Amino acid sequence: MRSKIRFAVQTSAVALSLGFASGAWAQAADDAESADAAPQEIVVTGSLIQRPNNTAVSPIVSISEAAIRESGKTSLVDSLNQLPGFTVGGNEATGGQGTGGRATINLHGLGTNRNLVLLDGRRLPVSDIRGNVDINILPDAIIGGVDAISGGASAVYGSDAMSGVVNFKSVRSLEGVVLDAQTGISSRGDAFKFKGSVAFGSNFADDRGHVVAAFAYAKQDSLNGSERDFFFTRTPSGFIGSGAFVPSSANAPSAAVLTTLFNSYGIAGARNPLASNLAFNNDGTLFTQTGALNYKGPNGTGGYAVVGGNVRMPVGQQIDYINGLERKSAFVKADYELTPGLTAYGQFMYVDLTTVTHSGGSLTQFPTLTTIPVTNPFIPTDLKTVLASRPNPTATFNWSARYVGVPYKGWDENYTIQQYMAGLKGDITEGWTFDVFGSYDSSIHNSIMRHAVLKSRVQTLLNAADGGKSICAGGFNPFGDANARSLSDACQAYITKDAFSQERVSQSQIQGQVNGKLFDLGAGPAQIAMVANYRKNTYSYAPDADSTANSGFAPAGNIEGYTVQLAVPEKAISVKEFAGQIDVPLIADKPFFKELAIGAAGRISDYSVSGSVSSYEADLRWRPTDNLLIRGSYQRAVRAPNIAELFSPPQGSQLAIGTPPAALGDPCDTRSTARTGANAAQVAALCTAQGVPSIATYQFPTTAVGQLIPGSTAITPEKADTFNAGFVFNAPRGSGLLGDFSLSVDYYNIKINNVISPVPGLTVLSSCYNLDGSNPSYATSNSNCQLITRDTLTGQIIAVNTPFRNLGAVKTDGVEVQVHWGVPATFLAQSGKLYIDSAIGYLNSYKVQLLPGAAFLDYTGISNGSAGDGSLPPRATPKWKALTTFGYRSDFFSGGLRWKYQNAIDDVSKVNTPTNVAVGVPAYATWDLFSSIKVSSRFELRGGVNNLFDKDLPIVSSNQTSTDTAQYDVIGRYFYVGFRAKF
Prior knowledge:
Radius of gyration: 30 Å
Largest sheet: 22 strands, antiparallel, barrel
Strand content: 35-45%
Number of helices: 14
C-alpha cells in the first residue's frame, strides 16, 4: 500500500476518543480498523511523520462525527466548548457591537489566536486582523471528526500553535448521497435553529479518481434580553429615553432656584445643583435621576426601573444575547491518480455567512457631544427657569439620552470566504514520498450598522429655531419619554443612516514536504520529514466615513454611542519557514519494552517584520506492554506578532467597567470603593487633578467606556515552553467488568513569556488609582493614568487606551483525564452496551504577569466576565470541569444523559480589588438528554433535550449584564430533532 502521509498529525490508536454524546470511542476504533483494512488516506494530528503503531506522544482528544451530531449543538464550537480543555472564546453569544459573532477556539484559556485551527492538517482562512479562525465557515456536512492536541506544536506547524492544535478532518471519500438535517427550539418558543446539508461523492476512472462535494445551509434566530426575565434590571444605564440635563460645574444653576422648584413639587429640602442630572417627566416637570425625586414615569414597564433609588433603563433587555445567523456553504475536493505513484488533488470552499446583532438604543455617550441651545423651542418651562439661573444663562447645555424614538442600533454583517487549493503528491523512490501544494484564501467582511444616529444631523435639529420642524415632520423634541418616542418617520430617516465598513483578509501559501525512511536500529526504520513553506497574509479596513475622527466630531466620530474607527490601508506580513522532524524507534517487542522510541522536531521561521525565530520539540514514548503507553514531550513554541498587533491604528471598542460598588466602574465615582476606602482623599485629589469637576458628587452615568487599541511594531515574538507527560491504559479486551475499559491521564505545563496583549482596561483603571498598589504617590504622570482620557467639561471617561505591548508572562498547568467503561447489556439487546464516558479537567494554576519583573497574579478559579474573546485571563478559569456521559447503545438505538459540571469560582475583583470582593459564581451544572434510532440501514433519527432541567443563568458580578451568556446557557431548556439519510 502506497504511503498516504500528509502534512497533518497522527491520531493514536490507543489515544482515547472522547465520545461526549454517544459511544464515540468504539466508533473511532471501528474507523481505525476499517482504515487498516483498506488503502485509505491517513489524516493525522500532531506529527509530520506516520509513527509506528499510530502512537501519539501528546494528549489527543478525538471527537467523532456521530458525537458531534448527537451533541444537539448547531455550531461546532459549542460542541467543542463542552470539553474541559476548551475555554469559551467567541461564539454565538459574543457578537455584539459589530464583532460578527465569530466562533473561535480557545485552548486552556490562553487566547483564541494562540492555537492553530486546521482542516485536514492545513491552515484555514483567517477571519480577522488578529489571525483568528472562525470555524463557522466549516460546512458541517464534510466534517468526519475532530482531533484536539494539547500543548505547543510550533516546531511542527509554525507560529500560533502555542496552546495546541485543533484539526478538523473532512470525510475521506463518499459513494452516493447523504442528507442530514436538524432543527430545534427552546421551551419558551424562541431561539429557533436549523441546519441542513447534502453531500455526495463518487469514485471514477476505475477508482483512480475521487470527488466529494457538500452543500449546507444553517439558520438561527437571535435571542433578545427582553425574552428572559433575568435581564429585567440588569445593566442599569444612566442614559434614559426621557432625556436629562447634565449640569456643568463651570456654569451651575442656582441651588436656591432648584430648591424652590422642587418645593413646588412637594419635595422639601435643599437641592444641590450638581448632585444629579435633571431629567424630564412627560408633563414638563423635572426629576432627579439620582434619588428619583419627583419621578412620574414607569417603573417595571417600558424598559424603565428604579434601581437602588436611581432612575435607569436596564439595557440588558435591549441586547441580542444570541446572534441571528444565516450560513450557506459549498465544499468540493477531488483527487486523481495521474500515474502509479503520482496523484493530483484540489479543494474549493465557499461560505456566505451573515450575522445579525442588536444592542439597544444609541446613546449620547462619546465626545464631542451634541449640545442644546437655550433657544430650542421644546425646552420645558421648568427647565427654562433652571437654565436662566446659571451665571451664563445663554450658554448651551449638555444633555444625555437614549434614542428611544429610533429603532435599535444593530449590525448586519456578511462574510464571504473563498479558499482554493491545488497540489501534487506521490512517490520519489522506495520509502520516500513528497507532497506539494499551493492555496489562496480571502475573507471579505461587510458590516452595516443599522439606524446609526448622526450627531451632526441631531445638532442641526437641536439648533434650528423651530426645533427642526422645517427640516423633518414634527422636528426633534428630546424632552420627555413620550416626546422622544413620537419622533416622525421623516426625522428618524434624517438623523440616521446605515453605516457601511469593509475589511479584507487574505492568505497565500506554498508548501512542500518530503517524507522518508532512514536507518533501522532493529526496532523499525527511523523516519524523517522535511517541510518548506512560504505564507503571506494581507489586511485592509475601510470604515464608514462617519465613524472616523475626520467626520467633524473629533475626538470621536459622527455616530452617536460608537467609538472612533480609523482606516487601515493594506498591510502585509510574510514568513519563510523550514522544518524537520525525525522519529527513531529504539527497542521493539522486548520484555517491558514493547516499544521505546524518541523523536524531535525543529523549525526556523523568518518573518518579514519581526525577524527570525526558532522552535523545537523532543518527545519520548514507551510501551511496557501492549496495553500501556507512557509518553512525554517538551516543546519550545513561538508566536510572531500578527497584523493587528503590529500595524493597527487605534481601533475603538467598548470596555465594560460596570456600576460601583458591585463592579469597578469609574474609580472617581462617589460610589466606588476607591472613593470610600482608606485612601479616598488621595483618589479624590487625583481625580480633581485629572479634570473631574465637583468631585464630592461626581458619578459616572453608564457601565461602559470607549476603549482604543493601537498596534506597535516595537513588539517582539512570544515564546512558550510546554511540557506534557502522561499515560494511556487500555484493558485487555474480553468479557468481564474491565473488558471494555480505557484510561488516559496527562499533565500539561505551559508558560508563555513576552506575552503580546493589549493592556487590560480594568487593570489600567485599578493601577492608576492605586487599587493594586501600582501608583502609591497618586501621580497623574503615572503611565497607567496617561492611558485614561477624560472629557474636559464633565470629567467623564472618554476612552481607556489599551495598546499592544509585550506585557509579561502567563503560565498554567493542570491534569486532563479521559476514562471509558462499558459493559454488555444483552438483557436489553444482543448488541446492547451500557457505558460511561468522562473527560475531567483539573486546573492546578493559572497566573498572569502584567509587566516583566512584576509579581504573578493568581487567576486560578476566577470568573472574569468582562474578558474579551481572546483575553488573558479568559472568561473563567475553574479548577474543575467535567463532561460525563451515561449511555446505552446497540445496533439500533442509542441514548443517555450527559452531565456538564464546573466548580464554584471567585469573582475577578478578588485579584483586581482584593479589599472589596464581589460575589463569585456558584458551581454550575447542566444535564442533557439524547437519543438516536436506526430506522433502517439508510435512515437514522435523533433527538434530545439540552439543559434538561432548565438551569438558570448564574450571577457574574464582573460582567456588565450581571451574567456571562457566552459562558453559561441563556437559552434554557432546548428541544431538537434531526435525521440522517444515505442513498
